[in-house]
Specification:
Number of domains: 1
CATH superfamily: Cytochrome P450
Strand content: 5-15%
Shape: globular
CATH topology: Cytochrome p450
Order of helices and strands: HHEEHHHHHHHHHHHHHEEEEHHEHE
Helix content: 40-55%
Radius of gyration: 24 Å
Strand order of the largest sheet: 1-2-6-3
Distance between the termini: 93 Å
Number of strands: 8
Bound molecules: protoporphyrin IX containing FE
CATH class: Mainly Alpha
Structural class: alpha+beta
Largest sheet: 4 strands, mixed
């Protein structure tokens, strides 16, 4: 009897000790904010704008710090030297994504951006790199040019709806370059279906909204009536698959009827056997490119509008450069950008000022690693804080000011004497072997449309009705419809 009580007491104490220690930071990890038993730092991580809190912790604990989400180790890196050394140079051990049961259940694990490393991801990645390289993307320029022209027409007719017009244009660029289907109106079937399912999909993946099934796997067995993510996942899965398959079938039908239009998926279908892709992988590769490109390019353009409305001197200087070089008798073309150093600087500064994915997409370590004397255990989630890199006072003169001039005298826009070890000008596209494969397509869309907008329109901050002062614009408060107005110079 006594022996049984002793064994049970030992087991209970052992379990309690394990639970109590779950949230504590193991020795050897990079420093970080103090933890609470069990929770770790869970209670301190905001669900919105986490990158701002991470940037504060970076100032306090340095370019690499750690957090505990109960027993899960999170590493946040904000120092270009460490990003290069850790994420770019040790690609193999850093190429995985954190497990996501929700993504797995919704997409069958074929969503390239969220897929675990392995043969499936490698085949998808090889295909994307093969067909989205710089030269291949130049073949899609006629459609980009056409969409950019329709965007100007729409803006001229209804400037007050500029947010929607930009969203339509980038959705149409992606739908036509990837699947060969245009979207002349936002209400068109494929675009509105995509927008509807994409909102649900993003909400489903939002951290902290649903039960943390990846940390506590037992939570997966909670019945559906108490686990709404299961219902939402099934709904998204059904709508997403139907949409991506409809788009793929449409493309196959055109190929069969000899009505090719040179879109990305035609090439994928042609080489499907050679590239070792299943039908599921082909449909989802197209869908993931659509997801990766439509929203991001739209947000880049909307943030550009926000920046130049807020900084009229920048707008005037960029417009003068464009007017002097291009004039008024023709539209800008993609080749013009080589001759427009200030416009190039404006584009870089928009990405620096408002990085679209401030924490990029997390990576996951597959082996124990060490860096700068710290131990990084296998299974750690790694975030790169792009926002903190781009807003560091050690690297930039007045980082909170929108100042494209910083890029005229320095490749990375950094201040004189700043340590530029490991610096790149495209941190906003991620890093290592997972770096965004859509860089060239995205850059072409952004460059083409920014040149056109500067060439054709004036932007200013909207007045606040009866109040004298203009509507303030906060970096984290992005509601451009309420804050910006635009007009054609001739109107
Ligand atoms: C301004 C536009 C864009 C930005 C800022 C952007 C940013 C990113 C970032 C930060 C990542 C994660 C990289 C990492 O894990 O280190 C990523 C991945 C990805 N992006 Fe983009 N992206 C853009 C446009 C596009 C476009 C146009 C496409 C498709 C044509 C695309 C397709 C993808 C795909 C498929 C991945 C997953 C790569 C992988 O996991 O191997 N993106 N992007």
């Amino acid at each position: 009897m006594l022996a049984t009580i002793a064994i049970w007491s030992f087991l209970v104490l052992f379990v309690l000790n394990r639970v109590y220690r779950a949230g504590s930071r193991e020795s050897g990890l990079p420093p970080g904010p103090p933890t609470l038993p069990v929770l770790g730092n869970t209670h301190q991580i905001p669900t919105k704008f986490a990158y701002l809190r991470f940037a504060e912790w970076c100032k306090q604990y340095g370019g690499i710090f750690s957090l505990k989400l109960t027993s899960q180790t999170i590493i946040v890196i904000s120092c270009p030297r460490l990003i290069h050394d850790f994420m770019d140079e040790r690609g193999g051990s850093m190429v995985d994504r954190p497990p996501s049961r929700i993504a797995e259940m919704t997409t069958n694990g074929v969503h390239m951006a969220l897929a675990r490393s392995g043969p499936l991801w490698k085949s998808l990645r090889r295909t994307a790199l093969l067909l989205l390289n710089r030269e291949a993307c130049l073949q899609h320029m006629p459609i980009q040019q056409a969409e950019a022209t329709q965007l100007m027409y729409d803006l001229l007719k209804q400037p007050e709806d500029f947010v929607e017009h930009i969203e339509r244009a980038t959705a149409s660029i992606m739908l036509s370059t990837v699947f060969g289907v245009r979207t002349p109106r936002y209400s068109d079937s494929f675009a509105s279906r995509f927008s509807s399912v994409q909102h649900k999909w993003q909400a489903l993946l939002e951290p902290g909204v649903h039960l943390p099934v990846d940390i506590f796997s037992a939570l997966e067995y909670i019945p559906e009536r108490w686990a709404s993510w299961k219902t939402i996942s099934r709904d998204v899965r059904q709508q997403q698959r139907k949409l991506y398959y409809d788009l793929m079938n449409d493309c196959e039908r055109r190929i069969g009827e000899n009505r090719r239009n040179g879109c990305f998926l035609e090439d994928v279908i042609d080489q499907q056997g050679m590239l070792g892709l299943t039908t599921d992988m082909v449909a989802y590769l197209g869908g993931v490119c659509l997801e990766g490109g439509a929203g991001t390019a739209a947000i880049s353009l909307q943030k550009f509008v926000l920046c130049i409305s807020r900084y009229p001197d920048v707008q005037a200087r960029a417009q003068k450069e464009i007017d002097d070089f291009i004039g008024f008798t023709r539209l800008p073309s993609i080749q013009d950008i080589e001759h427009l150093p200030y416009a190039q600087a404006v584009i870089k500064e928009v990405h620096r000022f408002y990085p679209i994915a401030p924490l990029a997409v997390p990576h996951f370590t597959t082996v124990d690693e060490s860096i700068d004397g710290y131990f990084i255990p296998k299974g750690s989630v790694i975030f790169m804080n792009v926002y903190a890199v781009y807003h560091s006072e050690d690297s930039y003169e007045q980082p909170e000011v929108f100042m494209p001039e910083r890029y005229l005298g320095s490749e990375f826009g950094t201040k004189p004497g700043a340590d530029t070890t490991g610096f790149r000008s495209d941190f906003h596209f991620g890093n290592g072997r997972r770096i965004c494969p859509g860089i060239h397509l995205a850059n072409n869309a952004i460059i083409m449309n920014i040149m056109n907008l500067l060439w054709g329109f004036n932007f200013s901050i909207a007045d606040k009705g009866s109040h004298d002062s203009p509507v303030p614009i906060q970096p984290e408060d992005f509601t451009p419809t309420k804050t910006v107005q635009m007009q054609h110079p001739a109107s």
